[in-house]
């Protein structure tokens, strides 16, 4: 019996653990942002890009010296040496005759090492500035990507809140519709209500139920969209505990101060300028320090037979100056000038675009805010009208059709009000995103 209890106990905790692992809980929008920055592929790729450009900067710093060194080791077997004819009189022979002599040894071993380094290389030095500027450009571009992802996450998050609030409203409306049906059915038993009125209220109840089902499906679609943005497993459940349906945090005015586009344009201009300066230095002279160190061992018996190595080395300076122009280099400089001018034009355009975008964000927020305030008043009026019409209907003064129309007006205004509240909060979040991502 005890083993079964232990097994049941372990199984219970295993199931609980699995459920916990398959659920992600968010309380605020900021928690969703934090989760996305840790798990989203977009942010991971952005981090890898930062690492990549830092390596490129390091490579350009090391490449400034262009340190190179080639080493070689050779083993030579002189299977047949060339004969040389030397005057015989050198060896005491008769004048006018020659003696055949072979110079050299059969086995020769050579080891050589030839390092060189650039002491002054204007083009390579300029590449450091290019790499550093590219670091800043990549960082700003990643911030723009972050802004876009944040806005998409905020849209999905507030859509989820909107559908949740609409579901709450529709659920209460469905309960009211069911109560109205029961009320009329009881009146029908007393012979006070026509069957047509029952049909009207039943049809209205079904319409509300269908609206509720559609909202629940749309809510799940928004959850799936949020999973894509945050790279959450499809099987994982998302729970958003924060309701955030308070209106105390929405107020006018809110100032938008985003400037990412012009910052990107600024660094793009500096990047193109650095490239232009670097490519113009192809004609500058370079100063190079070169050297060579070599050792040789030779004998007629075998390789390494004597183990007597004789060394030689040299060191020198070399100045290299391009004399004839290279067409490709000249064309590259011309292209760089054009790209630099284009970047300057885009920078000026981005300044205007940032200013207009900020104005647009403020207008979007004001529009949503004013619309929400008006619809909240309309909702209160529609609710009051429905409650009064319900009392009048009970007295038999208006028809069931008029009552249902009043009910639908109240429901639609309630749905629109909570949807507009979510729109106000989303518009505000876009301004906050624009102001804080710097």
From TrEMBL:
GO terms for molecular function: efflux transmembrane transporter activity; porin activity. It is found in: Cell outer membrane. One of its GO terms (cellular component) is efflux pump complex. Its main location: membrane. Keywords: Cell outer membrane, Membrane, Signal, Transmembrane, Transmembrane beta strand. Coiled coil: none annotated. InterPro entries: TolC-like. Residues 1-20 form the signal peptide. The keyword ATP-binding does not apply. This is Transporter.
């Amino acid at each position: 019996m005890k083993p079964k209890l232990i097994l049941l106990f372990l199984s219970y905790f295993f199931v609980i653990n699995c459920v916990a692992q398959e659920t992600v809980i968010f309380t605020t929008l900021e928690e969703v942002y934090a989760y996305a920055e840790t798990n989203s592929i977009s942010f991971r790729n952005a981090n890898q890009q930062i690492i990549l450009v830092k390596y490129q900067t390091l490579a350009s710093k090391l490449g400034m010296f262009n340190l190179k060194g080639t080493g070689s080791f050779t083993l030579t077997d002189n299977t047949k040496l060339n004969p040389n004819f030397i005057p015989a009189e050198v060896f005491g022979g008769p004048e006018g005759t020659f003696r055949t002599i072979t110079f050299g040894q059969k086995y020769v071993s050579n080891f050589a090492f030839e390092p060189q380094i650039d002491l002054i290389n204007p083009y390579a030095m300029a590449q450091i500035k290019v790499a550093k500027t590219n670091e800043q450009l990549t960082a700003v571009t990643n911030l723009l990507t972050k802004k876009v992802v944040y806005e998409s996450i905020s849209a999905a998050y507030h859509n989820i809140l909107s559908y949740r609030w609409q579901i709450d409203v529709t659920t209460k409306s469905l309960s009211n519709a069911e109560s109205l049906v029961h009320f009329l059915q009881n009146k029908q038993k007393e012979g006070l209500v026509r069957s047509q009125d029952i049909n009207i209220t039943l049809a209205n109840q079904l319409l509300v139920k269908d609206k509720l089902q559609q909202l629940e499906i749309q809510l799940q679609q928004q959850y799936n969209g949020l999973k894509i943005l945050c790279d959450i497993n499809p099987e994982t459940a998302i729970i958003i505990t924060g309701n955030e349906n308070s209106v105390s945090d929405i107020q006018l005015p809110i100032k938008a101060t985003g400037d990412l586009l012009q910052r990107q344009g600024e660094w793009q201009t500096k990047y193109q300028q650095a490239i232009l300066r670097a490519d113009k230095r192809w004609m500058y002279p370079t100063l190079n320090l070169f050297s060579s160190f070599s050792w040789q061992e030779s004998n007629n018996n075998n390789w390494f037979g004597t183990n007597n190595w004789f060394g030689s080395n040299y060191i020198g300076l070399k100045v290299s100056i391009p004399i004839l122009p290279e067409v490709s280099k000249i064309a590259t400089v011309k292209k760089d000038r054009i790209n630099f001018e284009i970047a300057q034009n885009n920078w000026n355009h981005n300044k205007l675009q940032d200013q207009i975008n900020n104005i647009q964000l403020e207008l979007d927020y004001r529009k949503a805010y004013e619309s929400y305030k008006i619809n909240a008043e309309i909702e209160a009026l529609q609710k009051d009208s429905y409650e009064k019409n319900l009392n009048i209907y009970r007295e038999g003064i208006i028809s069931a059709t008029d009552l249902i129309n009043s009910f639908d007006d109240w429901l639609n205004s309630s749905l629109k009000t909570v949807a507009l509240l979510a729109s106000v909060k989303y518009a505000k979040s876009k301004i906050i995103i624009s102001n804080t991502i710097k």
